[in-house]
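input
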Amino acid sequence: MDTLPLYLSAKLALITTTMLLFVAAPVAYCCAYFRFPARPYVEALISLPLVMPPTVLGFYLLVVMGPNGVMGRFWEDLTGQRLCFTFTGIVLASLVYSFPFAAQPLKAAFEKIDHRMIESAYVLGCSRLQTFYRVIIPNSLGGILVAAILTFAHTMGEFGVVLMVGGSIPGKTKVASIAIYEYVEALRYREANMLSLALAVISYLVLVIVNILNQRNGHGS
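output
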C-alpha cells in the first residue's frame, strides 16, 4: 500500500488544524461575548459548511481560487503560481470546509467560562486582549483540545472539496480519501481496505478522546 496519500492527509490535517485554532478563536470569541444585529447571520455563515454539499462548496471555491477568480488572480500575481491543484490550494479549501469544527467547540468553551472571572480581570485593569489570553484561553483548554481533535479528524477524511480544488495529483493533492476512491475504481480492494481501515481507526480514536474529554469537563463542572 502506498502510504504517501495517508501522509498527505495527515500533513493537510495538521496544518489546517494549527491555522484554524488561531483563525477561529477570535471569531468564536466575538460570537460568544458580543451582541450585534448580524450575529445570527454570521453564525449561520460559520456553520454553512456543515450542511452545504461538499461538491457545491468545492465548486465555488474552485471558481474563486481559479485563474479568473479573485483569490486565484491575487495569488498568481503575488507568487507567479496557480492556486488550484496545489497543496496550498487544498489547505485554503480545508480552512473553509473545516472552519465550523474549530469555531463551534471554541465558542461553546468560551461561553462556559464564569463571567465573574472576566469581570474581575476588567476590574483589575486588563484589556479585552489581555483578558482573552490570560483568562479565557487558559480556562478553555479542554474546548480548544476538542476543537483541534475534531478539526484534525474531519480534515483527514475530506473528499469532495479537496477533489474539486486539488484534483488527484500524486505526491501533491492525492490525499487518502481520494486514493481510496481510485483504488475502488481500479478494483484494488486490498489497498482500499487498508487505507479505509487506517482512517476508521483514526476516527474511532478521535471519538474516544473527545468522549473522555467531555466526561472530564462534565465532572469538573
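quick obs: The chain has twelve helices and no strands.
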